[in-house]
Amino acid sequence: MATAAAPDSSLLSLLYRSYPNVISPDATEPDYLHATPKIFSQTSYGEAEEADVKQWLNTVSGLKTALAKDEKPVLESILAQLNTHLATRTTLLGAKPSVADVAIYALVAPLVEKWSPEERTGEKGYHHIVRHIDFIQNSKVFSLQIPEEEKVVIDVNDVRFVPQPIDPKEEKERKKREKANAQNPEAAAEKPLVVGQGKPGKDQSKAAEAASAGPPQDQQEGKEGEGSQGSQACCCSCCPPPRPQLSTCVSATSCALSTTPMPTPSSSPPSTAVTPPGSDNTSLDEETGKTVRTVCSGLNGLVPLEEMQGRKIVAVCNLKPVTMRGIKSAAMVLAASPRVPEGGDAHAGPVELVSPPADAPAGERITFQGWSEGEPEKQLNPKKKVWETFQPGFTTNGDLEVCFDSSAVPAVAGQDKPAIGKLATASGVICTVKSLKDATVR
Q1: pTM of the full predicted structure?
Q2: Terminus-to-terminus CA distance in the chain, angstroms?
Q3: Would you kindly state where each structural domain of the chain is located, as residue ranges?
Q4: Could you tell me which of 51, 58, 331, 415 has the fewest CB atoms within 10 Å of its CB?
């Protein structure tokens, strides 16, 4: 492959081929550090991110030296650090592209090409580096001009070992070390390892802690445990069971979303989103001070990754979390799809994410008009099939508005409620989809 040339010439050649308007063909020592905002002009970068790019370019230099001198311990240490860093990020900065990603690709892709399946995705393999290389060479975000025959051949279905989830305490300590190194450039410069400030929340925008689409409900049913924290039902045989209330069951929230592919090849990307303060199954992002949660979705291939990045979505946040490929998924993103006959493939048609109003603050509770009284249960009991009871009423109308059609939910028949309630913010602004009319929402 073309990138197997000397690292300097390989990177320069790749940048010139891909971005001829930015990198001059006569350049021998281009200013890589300041090339990022020129190449990715539609993306803004803060001072901390610029510092991260500089550190990663220093790491590329250290990695190049280790390769030239065949310093295997140093090489393995750098690769391990890189692999850990990418475990919760799509790119080195989290979700934003940079020249540092391209530099890592030019230097590491030839290594990945030579790795055995065990070295790639075995128990001691570099799963996240392999995923990063595959993403960089194929992503429209980077648009690298690499002929198909020169790309690293990666079989996304050949995963020899599924890594365990990162221990939260260890990850927190690692972030502290990164922050300390970032604040002490002299100490960081002594090491050939980069420790970026990009956290898995803001840039990835915190891409392993946030709200994307939750797993299909059929995946939840078999894995969810017990225990709703809501009101208790009467246990005597003389009383009919209380009818569930939509307002106390479904807790929908406006979230700011960021997405990244799974740490191991999969159809489900984990995402990061801002969520209501004080919520369960969340964590506090130290840099932004916002509460975030992680979820996994089955939307890869149905909704373009670029379309999910950095946008606002509506997520149901009180379903019981499930663990998918070692990642705890703690929400479900609402999306619309065409109705299909019973037994049909629900994922065969187009899928569109439900969009809250553009000015809806992340973390704001969203409810169906006329069905909004009461506080939602903190966590629904999966054994009571509450989501399955209400979901058939979730729909879109001819104006592309998301609604609750009570006629489709026998459990609420006879209640003194509107037949149709539109999904809206407290100020009354309606949530919508892009183009799917009379579609099902789940």
Answers
A1: 0.45
A2: 44
A3: 2-189, 217-224+241-441
A4: 415
